[in-house]
Structures are given as C-alpha cells and as structure tokens.
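[recover] target loaded
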C-alpha cells in the first residue's frame, strides 16, 4: 500500500528483500523517532546513538548468559552495524553528489566566463578592422 503525505510517497510495503534496510528503519534501530530527519541529524549524533545502543546490547551479556541470549545479542549487534553502515554510506553518497553538483556549477560558470572573454576579444578585433 502506497500513500502520499505532504508531497512525499510513503510506502508501508517492504521494498524487495525483507532483509533490505531503508533510512527510516536504520534511524529507528538507532533509537531516533520517525519525526527525526536523517539529513538534519549530525553524523556525530548518529554515531553516539550507535555507541549507546551497542553498550545497551552488551550490558545484558555475561559469561553465564545462555547461548540463545548470546545469539540474539549478536543478531542485534549485526542489525545495528548494518544500520550505521547504511546511514554512513547514504551520507557520504549525498555529500559526494552535492560536491559534484557544486563542481559542475563552477565549471559551467568558468566556461561562461571564458566564452564571454573570447567573444569580447573577437568583437574588439572585428570593430578595430571596420
């Protein structure tokens, strides 16, 4: 089922593989509310939340813990790690894309300036001949 809220498409169906994680799931795994925007959250805050969740997961494990409890903890840690890796990759990807766009704009402006200079030279040479 897909709905549109505030101009954004919101899907409540899994996207493909059930093991696939998305931004909202990753943020929720790290303890952020659904109203917290990924792009407005500093990476340091995300890393602190990850460290806190890892600490919480390890706090219940000791040498006497049973095997099932240890396996559950390992699964939680894997999910937390997957969530952090997903968010780090997404942030780096978005920052790289933004830098690429800025670089493209600079190149475009530089080409405009060079073309304008060349046009100005051409016009000055043609007006001197006349």
């Amino acid at each position: 089922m897909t709905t549109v809220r505030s101009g954004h498409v919101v899907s409540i169906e899994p996207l493909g593989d059930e093991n696939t994680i998305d931004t909202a799931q990753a943020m929720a795994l790290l303890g952020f509310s659904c109203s917290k925007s990924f792009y407005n959250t500093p990476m340091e805050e995300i890393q602190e939340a990850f460290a806190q969740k890892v600490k919480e997961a390890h706090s219940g494990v000791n040498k006497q813990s049973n095997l099932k409890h240890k396996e559950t903890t390992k699964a939680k840690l894997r999910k937390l790690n997957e969530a952090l890796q997903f968010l780090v990759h997404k942030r780096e990807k978005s920052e790289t894309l933004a830098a690429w766009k800025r670089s493209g704009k600079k190149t475009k402006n530089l080409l405009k300036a060079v073309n304008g200079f060349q046009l100005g030279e051409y016009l000055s040479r043609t007006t001197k001949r006349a």
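[recover] notes: The domain at 21-103 is CATH 1.10.287 (Helix Hairpins).
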